[in-house]
Amino acid sequence: MFEQYFNFLKTPFARDIPEKDLYNNTDIEEVCDRLEYVARNRLFTVVTGDVGTGKTTAIRKFVTFLDINHYKVMYISDSALTPRNFYWEVLNQFGCEGKFYRSDAKRQLTREITNLIEIQKKIPVIITDEAHLLSRDMLEEIRFLLNFKMDSYNPMSLILVGQSELKDILKKQIYEAIYQRIDLRYHLMPYDRQQTEEYIKKHLEYAGETRELFTDVAVNEIYKYSHGVSRKINKLCTACLLHAAQIQKKIIDDHMVRLIIEEEFNW
């Protein structure tokens, strides 16, 4: 494995890197600051971005900032949920078994939220990931969550996270009631060339490597291929490290990056 060849202490470009060791830039800081504001003020927000631009990573980082004594986070990532199963999942994260019928589960969730706020003095934060894949029924059900106590009181923070098309979906006339209620919107952009280089260095530092393993022109090629999308950067850098270890090379140049792109990614 390339970790042994390069004497890495940890595996770079992996999905399970702790939040404190993740690459942090101004965009990530800004979205986390906005989400903290959303949580504190019990607002409804939508976070969008193209595939692989780090939406879930940003959410992971944001959640670590929240004081568990003041907030209870419920994270839903199953985009195929029906409204009834949605309530069951949220109630399960409250630590209780949901009622069978949707109407009963709704009332049950209302009671749990009220108890959390009034008795435990915590703010519920419901995060729904992959929200661009939610069904019409599920999106319509969000109106219930936003219409707590006949729209006179907002008890929770609700965060929808999804790919860029979520913006267009919510602009449709049928979702006008939801769209008008969005308090904040944020769209994550891919990294630029400098951020791509910083991202690569951050991952190598996490692995315990301080040398420049990727030449400047290699980073140029990585950026050209990935367009600054973190998921593509991860896959390409990992493939390059594997190849370098196999052919006993300690430095990854632009020729190697182009070779890997041509042989492993252009199909």
Describe the structure.
The protein folds into two domains: 2-16 and 191-265, Helicase, Ruva Protein, domain 3 (Orthogonal Bundle); 26-188, Rossmann fold. It is elongated. It has twelve helices and five strands. Strands 2-3-4-1-5 form a five-stranded parallel sheet, sandwiched between helices. The chain is of the alpha/beta class and 267 residues long. Helix 11 (230-246) crosses helix 12.
Please render the helix and strand layout as text.
Blueprint: H1 2-5, H2 26-40, E1 44-49, H3 55-65, E2 71-76, H4 83-94, H5 102-118, E3 123-128, H6 136-146, E4 157-163, H7 165-170, H8 176-179, E5 184-188, H9 193-206, H10 216-226, H11 230-246, H12 254-265
Parallel strand pairs: 1-4, 1-5, 2-3, 3-4
Intertermini distance: 25 Å
Please summarize the sheet with the most strands.
Answer: 5 strands, parallel
Percent helix, as a range, is: 40-55%
Strand order of the largest sheet: 2-3-4-1-5
Number of domains: 2
Please count the beta strands (DSSP E, at least 2 residues each): 5
The second-level CATH architecture of the largest domain is 3-Layer(aba) Sandwich
Question: What's the level 1 CATH class of the largest domain?
Answer: Alpha Beta
Strand content range: 5-15%
Shape descriptor: elongated
Fourth-tier CATH superfamily name of the largest domain = P-loop containing nucleotide triphosphate hydrolases
